[in-house]
Specification:
With about 120 residues, the protein is an all-beta fold. The protein has strands spanning about 5, 10-15, 20-25, 35-40, 45-50, 60, 70-75, 80-85, 90-100, 110-115, 115-120.
């Protein structure tokens, strides 16, 4: 069975940094584009950013561009989200996901999901 597990969430002050990790098992990791989404209580899950299979191309939502960086290590079956210059509006549950197509922001194109990790940015 496929399992994606996020870690690294927590409480951080505005302007600070945090690094999230996603550990994957049960799939051929290098075959999947990967993405990060986030969700606030009562709101739709929104796209944060994605990375291609080889890890040499990324794209991001405008709200996090130039502040967040996605990377992956296919040898270790892991993906990370490096967040800097954090803002209170970044507060959300962050999810990693394995996709079926490159350069898609659509939730239904990602069919494997982690359980989420809470990121809270205090002002």
């Amino acid at each position: 069975q496929v399992q994606l597990v996020e870690s690294g969430g927590g409480l951080v002050q505005a302007g600070g940094s945090l690094r999230l990790s996603c550990a994957a098992s049960g799939l051929t990791f290098e075959n999947y584009p990967m993405a990060w989404f986030r969700q606030v209580q009562g709101k739709e899950r929104e796209f944060v950013g994605a990375i291609n299979r080889d890890g040499d191309s990324t794209f991001y939502a405008d709200s996090v561009k130039d502040r967040f960086t996605i990377s992956r290590d296919n040898a270790k079956n892991t993906m990370s989200l490096q967040m800097s210059s954090l803002k209170p509006e970044d507060t959300a549950v962050y999810y990693c996901a394995a996709g079926t197509a490159w350069r898609t922001t659509r939730r239904y194109d990602y069919y494997y999901w982690g359980q989420g990790t809470q990121v809270t940015v205090s002002s």
